[in-house]
Design brief:
Layout (H helix, E strand, L loop, with lengths): L2 E4 L6 E4 L4 E5 L2 H7 L4 E7 L3 E4 L4 E6 L2 E5 L6 E6 L5 E5 L13 E3 L16 E2 L6
Parallel strand pairs: 3-10, 10-11
Antiparallel strand pairs: 1-2, 2-5, 3-4, 4-9, 6-7, 7-8, 8-9
């Protein structure tokens, strides 16, 4: 599987060469980082992600994670946890064909907003946020 994507302004583009593990994340950290009711994340092994031309800027979003974004347009691009340096998550909305990336489970379900109805029939996992 090969997938491409990028930020809103087009300055940052990427290529992924493996099938991502996709899920909804309802945790407070993802809600605030995306400005939405939840995030949809596609996890890939770090070596399977290639940045084309430019790379994201990074900012720590908590003591356990950092997020990548386009410094030009501000598009959120990635999430990476310190305890899992071998994998990185990309926001599904940044892929050129996000319809190919269907979520398989919910994460942080205990923090899911009551009116969110996407993926309610999928398996649920609790967040392990501890900081």
């Amino acid at each position: 599987m090969e997938l491409n994507g990028g930020c809103l302004c087009g300055r940052i583009r990427f290529n992924v060469t493996s099938e991502p593990r996709v899920h909804y994340c309802h945790c407070d950290m993802c809600r605030r980082a995306t400005g939405s009711a939840f995030a949809v994340l596609a996890w890939v092994p770090s070596p399977d992600l290639t940045w084309i031309d430019a790379t994201p800027a990074y900012r720590r979003s908590s003591p356990i994670a950092q997020r990548g974004f386009c410094p030009a347009c501000g598009s959120p691009l990635t999430l990476a946890y310190d305890v899992s340096p071998g994998e990185i998550a990309l926001h599904v909305g940044t892929f050129d064909d996000p319809a190919r990336l269907e979520p398989r489970y919910n994460y942080g379900s205990g923090q899911r907003l009551g009116w969110v109805c996407c993926g309610v029939d999928l398996p649920h996992r609790e967040t392990e946020e501890r900081w």
